[in-house]
Write a structure and sequence with these properties.
Length: 160
């Protein structure tokens, strides 16, 4: 009987200890709110370099303080650009640009107009738009347009 009482007391003590622990260590709303605070943002520029100290990436503010990201090749030439336009009419519209080995933008993916229609633009080595695939700003209908060597633009696909 003595062994039974000791076992019962041990179980009862463990049960009371478990309840006390749950009450003591229960997160309170005040504690939960304190742990959900936002981390302090890092300010400045992130400039990444490889083992040879050559720049391979840049992340920082652009001309108007927007986020800008560049990736560089082994010769430190810009190959990929992500950001948004700083200009008056296009200000804040996102873009992704792919550059050739001479750092000329050859392909551009962007949103256009106040309706933010998507556009994919292929450029020649002189920076002229040669092929544009996108949606019409007013109707949202797809189109494909190309510009020939004489600078004349023609619609290949245009829906009414």
């Amino acid at each position: 009987m003595k062994k039974f009482v000791q076992t019962l007391m041990m179980l009862f003590t463990g049960f009371i200890g478990g309840i006390a622990g749950a009450l003591i260590f229960q997160p309170t709303p005040l504690l939960a709110a304190a742990t959900e605070s936002k981390p302090k943002p890092i300010q400045g520029v992130v400039d990444l370099a490889n083992a040879k100290a050559n720049r391979i990436a840049y992340l920082g503010p652009g001309q108007i303080g927007q986020g800008t990201f560049f990736l560089y090749d082994e010769k430190q030439n810009v190959r990929l650009q992500m950001g948004s336009y700083p200009g008056y009419k296009e200000k804040g519209q996102p873009l992704i640009g792919l550059h050739d080995r001479e750092q000329r933008m050859r392909m551009l993916f962007r949103l256009y107009n106040s309706t933010d229609v998507p556009m994919l633009i292929f450029k020649d080595t002189y920076g002229r738009d040669r092929l544009v695939i996108g949606l019409h700003a007013g109707t949202q209908e797809p189109f494909i347009e190309f510009t020939d060597g004489n600078g004349i633009s023609k619609r290949m696909v245009a829906l009414p």
